[in-house]
Amino acid sequence: MASGTSGGREYSLVELFAIKFVLADVLIIALLLLAGPVYALLATALIVLGGLLLWHFATGDRDESRGVEPERASEAVESAAANADPVTTLQERYAAGELSEAEFEARLDRLIESNERANSASVDTDDLSLERRR
């Protein structure tokens, strides 16, 4: 939740904002009297900016604060799956039920054999495919 504790007492978000701005007023008045109006104005701007950031992070929805829309999130997952290595793709297909255990083991064996042959021939294996090319 958005509450703080101090000495056994819990403060709500509204109370935390009130305390913050009371202390900010004291600081601004002290700066105005002791340092001058420019420093008081700068402190006011920093305090307001801090309050806005605190409010944004305390009340914002997790997905909205990151700016991720549901459609784009699924596209990102699909893109990550497309860039996954062949073994991971094979495992995901087996877990999704697209492959039987025998098919999974046969394709995994074929992939391992292909990888070993490519390594012995000093060929980069990043472009290996799970399916046979026709």
UniProtKB/TrEMBL annotation:
Transmembrane segments: 12-33, 39-58
Signal peptide range: none
Region of interest (Disordered), residue spans: 62-82
InterPro entries the record matches: SHOCT (IPR018649)
Biased composition (Basic and acidic residues): 62-75
Keywords carried by this UniProt record: Membrane, Transmembrane, Transmembrane helix
Domain SHOCT: 85-111
Pfam families, sorted: SHOCT
Coiled coil residues, start to end: none
Protein name: Short C-terminal domain-containing protein
Organism of this sequence: Natrinema salaciae
